[in-house]
């Protein structure tokens, strides 16, 4: 595990300026994509995905006004959330989640984006109920059957959504997806938009569509994303990590 995606350790004020500049660029891209799609940027929630970056970067992001933070591994997220417990942050767990980690994740996460099987619904519900918290859950949808990056098949989404909506301690927020690697993200995000429209027929309040990363936020916005998960474009390149 490395901390920080840049070589050497920049001074805090330099790092702050670097992140502020990146944030300005990302906000500019969001504004342009919204203008092109006829959408209001206020409809978009920007989640800073801080995996592999230190808690000091989370603190700088919070100082720049960001309130949403995303992490993908419990062993990294848990201490980081603890270090930042004094900050007014919402923590999003966006990575694959094993059922035996559900209890740990439920202790600090506010939103879990990667619910893709019913056993995980049960585990998260037990964990949330035990800790007296409410966890907002998104059903992760697989947009490419050939891949194994997590996610339920579109046909499995309604049953999973119903299970979340009925589970104690859980609240159904909507859907999440990652565009297929190496393919045009636009048709994939269009498929996601169709799944989301269907979901809202039965669960009108489940309006979250978490889609769009550093490389495809424009396409995600064009297809109705409400939440963007942005790492590299805000914080720089990550060192090679095991996924
Ligand atoms: C790392 C990660 C992101 C952010 O990706 P970038 O390309 O660095 O913006 C978004 N979503 C998930 C699920 C991730 O694991």
TrEMBL record:
Keyword Zinc-finger: no
Keyword Cell inner membrane: no
Keywords linked to the UniProt accession: Pyridoxal phosphate
A Pfam short name: Ala_racemase_N
Positions of modified residues (N6-(pyridoxal phosphate)lysine): 51
Domain Alanine racemase N-terminal stretches: 61-238
Family, as annotated: Belongs to the pyridoxal phosphate-binding protein YggS/PROSC family.
Function: Pyridoxal 5'-phosphate (PLP)-binding protein, which is involved in PLP homeostasis.
Protein name, UniProt field: Pyridoxal phosphate homeostasis protein
Source species: Actinomadura nitritigenes
Taxonomic lineage from the root: Bacteria, Bacillati, Actinomycetota, Actinomycetes, Streptosporangiales
